[in-house]
Amino acid sequence: MFFRKSRVFIFALFIILSSLLIVMQSCVPQRPNPTADDIYSWKMEILNSPKNVLVKQISGVLVHVSGSDGIIHDGKTGIYVYKGNFYSSDKDKKVTLTNVTGTLYKDSIQIDFSKGGTKSLSTSSENISPANLNTVLTKSDKDRALWDQRYVLAYGYIKKGITQTGDIIFSYETTSGTSQIPISISPSILTTPLNYDTEATLTGFTQFINGGWKLNVVSAEIGKTIVGDGIFVDEVVDGLTFKSLGNTYKLIGLDVSLSENPKADLENFIVQNNSFVQVQQKKTVEGETYVFLYSSDGKKFYQEEVLKNGKARPDFDASIDDNQTYEILKDAYKQAYDKKSGVYSLFSTATIVSTNTAAESNLNKFVIVSGTVKNVIKDTNGNWEINVDDWLKVVVKAGNYKYLFSRELNILKDKLANFFGYLTKPEGSSSYVMELKAEWEYFSFAGGSGTQDDPFLIETPLQLFSVRALATQNKYFKLKADIDLTGYSWTPIGTYSSNLSQSAFQGVFDGNGYKIKNITFNDTSASNVGLFGYIYKSTIKNLVIENASMIANQRVGVLAGASQDSTIEQVKVINSSVRAEIDGSCYTGGLIGDATDGTKVKQCVVLNTTVSGKKYAVGGLIGQLKGTTTKPVLVENSYVQGGEVKSDYSSTTASAGFICNYTIPTGGGEVKNNYAAIKVTNGQGFVGYIVTAGNDQGASNNYFDKDVAGTSNDKLAGKGVTAKTTSEMKQKNTFNGWDFDNIWKIDEGTDYPRLNWE
């Protein structure tokens, strides 16, 4: 009886509990039943599920592809598809996903296709347009389901700078006021952070991630930048001053004292902006407001524009602390220097002044002053004075030093240095004065004192320029790195005069195995042109010159325009071109244009180089070689291979593969153990022309490739020069008397002889 009552009680309890459960279920809100093409409903389903959701079918147009991932959109909202195996060519196609997994990743709703399911693609004519982002986004499920990965168009401002959390903020208007959202934007679209609030129209996808919203930008149209106050300009007073509504404004940061027409430059800028500009006001002194000036849309910064074009020089105000803006202006002025614009167009050709006597004839000009720094003084206001050789004061104002220099200037004390600037002499003063504007306007060497045991060390183009300042002083120089002269105009080191000791390069230049690359010169009125213009009683060695281009009037070579009583050893010219335009004797060569009176060339190479001239004396290695019994010349163990030597003039003696004009009397020098394998146009295979009858002595064991030259003719044929076929030129036994143990090497049957040092 007891057990029967217990069973009845248990059954009754079961009925009661079942009823309660039915009642409780009827009180729980039910999730919507998603339809196959409704992305919003499936997103709500995923949001309201405690675990992953099996999405039976979902479809939309593929509007964005990133790697193998993508975003599909049905016109109302979108959803991210992880590992969807999409290609960029799939974009704008309709995507249908079946039996896939819906999940949350860092709070963002997505389909994880890596967990299985099927995908089909079909052509779609549906055009998905972005929705306007004009509402404050909340964390509600409805907003997340609608706006997470929604394709949007947003109008507003990208705020300047970044937040403490590293975010770039976009501010936009909504129906209830202004809202802000962090943005993610690729540098290929826009470089951020910005210096100023900037108007922008952004297209992208809103995303709820890690508890907050952000906008992933796929395109941006930049509008007006708000940098300061907008004003109408009534009058331009001068190159630094303008007026508006009775107020006077002065430009900060510019020295226009040497500008050609600074007032016109400022007027043009104002006119281009219909007299409406933006100004950043920095300080007011005696009724004048000092400003940075911008275009009406804030996109052009006047001071930046004139500095980068070299139309003005910097005059920074130390009392105005604005590192960000001054850094922009520093970069602008450096651009003028790099491009050699405006004032810097005079840099590469500036006269070298090293004495007060030379200074007198170069007063009120841009020059390079070279001298030893005797003393460096910094006053209490931060201004610097550098005393050079007791006749020049180089001054640096405090503001320019603060923002345009990165090191103490007292490191120059007792050092040889060069300074580029405008040379003046104040009335009543015995000293000359030059104002230095930026740290790249002074340069010296990387080290050394210029002696044989302690040569000047060269690591940069500017340090190479410094050699020109000391060309006549019998100093020693040594490369410590490759030098790339791309973008620099070149002025040859040393030149001709009736007194070569006062003009030509005299010293020792050791390339130390390094290269000087991309040197260019183009002036058809100039003569004595090359890396060196004229070398005299000098030594040049261990140097490679690559990709040089030299165009001049006469006496032009890649290494030197002309040489006297000098030694050139182990110098190699590669992939270069050299040309003389004179309608006469060009004296142009791949290495030296005119080599005379004691010049010695040993183990040198001209490779894959074009040597040309308008008329006579065009040689693959040397345009003219001329020795005497008192000053014999020597060319040995050198070669020219590849490229072409040619004269525009139709003559069989206008050019030659090795040396064109040849003058060596008995006892006047030697040309031995050399070869040429270069195409020749209007000339001879090795030597082109004997200038004076009988002066054809000194040649021995020289060869040229008649197949490559295109001729078997040579003015020294049978007198120390022999024509050979290409095959013969690649055999060791062709080269009688050559030293293949210490000087030469050859890969027989494959290559021409090469020098061991190469």
Automatic annotation (TrEMBL):
InterPro entries per record: Pectin_lyase_fold/virulence, SNase_OB-fold_sf
Gene3D superfamilies reported for this sequence: 2.160.20.110, 2.40.50.90
Name of the protein this chain belongs to: GLUG domain protein
